[in-house]
Predict the 3D structure of the following.
Amino acid sequence: MVSAQVIRGMQEKMMDDGGIDPNEYTWTDPNVEFSRRLGPNGETPEAIENLYFTMMLLLSGVKGARERLLADCNNGKIGDTQACEVLQKILNHPLLDDPSIEAASLRLREHASKDSNNLWEARMRTRDLMRIMNCVQCNKCRFHGKISTLGLSTAMQLTIGQNGLGSDVDVNKIHRVELAALVTAMGKFSSGIDLCLDMQQQ
């Protein structure tokens, strides 16, 4: 259960950020809300499966960019020593070499290779998603949404490339901002999965 102190803190934060009065809204127990939205009989039970699929896609993208990121660490192009140490631990984690994470990228490549229109549609949808983020009123939400969208777009670029197979991608030509968004998005999705696991256990 979420403590009253956490709820009060969230309400105060809402007031500070956007002047939204939390008293105008009825507070719903997080467990009830989770079940309503993401439970087996909820509104979107497939959302958690999609979350895992996207996480596997992001992991595949990070694996594809691993050599470039490690080289940037060694050349002093990424932050300070502490940031590099954390990134190197992530990049050397055995999960990135687990064959099962390739399932998402293989499915995506298979889908893209069936029809060239699929590849075009995927590119257009990521652009649309980035445009939609401009409509988000909260600046922080817009910022985090754009980072996640750019990270997902970078993962797709590394996975499918121009030809749908990913074999034509030169990782060295991908901008550092895109790589940073990719790693950040992976962190965000990882936190989301942790939260879902916690909620499912309650």
DSSP finds eight helices and no strands in the chain. The chain has two domains: 1-45, 48-201.
